[in-house]
Amino acid sequence: NMVLLGLVGGLFLAAIVTFVPVADHYATGRAGTVIPVSGIDALLIVAMILIVVRSIEGHVRTVPFTASPSGLP
After folding, report:
1. HSE (CB half, 13 Å, CA atoms) of 42?
2. What pTM was estimated for this model as a whole?
3. What share of the chain is helix, strand, coil (3-state, %, to 5)?
């Protein structure tokens, strides 16, 4: 399951990085002004939105990031 999840996640990220600039070029070109947006910019925006939503919901880490993953199932 982990390999399949990694494959699907990797394909999703590759598709975002590849297709977002093309879709942005066509969408903003139709509007009359081309505003360049790279796939990395789109991923950064999504990450920031997720961080803000998690902080608004009051998500608190129970384990620090430096903890060893020995407690994984």
Report:
1. 18
2. 0.42
3. 70, 0, 30
